[in-house]
Design goal:
Blueprint: H1 2-11, H2 16-28, H3 37-50, H4 52-65, H5 69-82, H6 87-96, H7 100-120
């Protein structure tokens, strides 16, 4: 499978799906079969160039598997900063790390931002049909 993913990337330089599969291979396979966290990080860096928030999420996942929690948190923060829609991933990370205060504060702040957005666009809450 590894060679198929590499070929898919060679044929389509923007192929993110095959890169995600390669990262999973590199992080799951034992070293004698080609697994390598360093190779996984190289591929995650390629994804960062194609899709910033997704790339940081993948990098964070690699660091979690390596049990490098501070580095994972840094990547997840960069992910959420790049795209607010990835905020729940950061919240889930905090919950999984039993950092409930950070998760709660993160979701509380997200709710405040959503309320402010609704106040700025009052018609967004009007869902009546004609």
């Amino acid at each position: 499978m590894k060679s198929a993913w590499e070929k898919a990337i060679a044929l389509d330089s923007k192929n993110i799906s095959s890169r995600e599969s390669l990262i999973e291979f590199y992080t799951q396979a034992p070293g004698f079969m080609g697994g390598s966290f360093e190779k996984a990080k190289e591929v995650a860096n390629q994804v960062i160039k194609l899709n910033v928030p997704l790339g940081h999420r993948l990098m964070g996942n690699i660091f979690v598997q390596e049990k490098n929690i501070p580095a994972a948190e840094k990547e997840y923060l960069l992910m959420a900063k790049a795209d607010v829609l990835f905020t729940p991933v950061l919240g889930t990370f905090y919950t999984n790390q039993q950092q409930y205060d950070k998760a709660f504060n993160l979701f509380e702040e997200a709710m405040k931002r959503a309320r402010r957005q609704l106040e700025l666009t009052p018609n967004a809450q009007d869902t009546t049909l004609l």
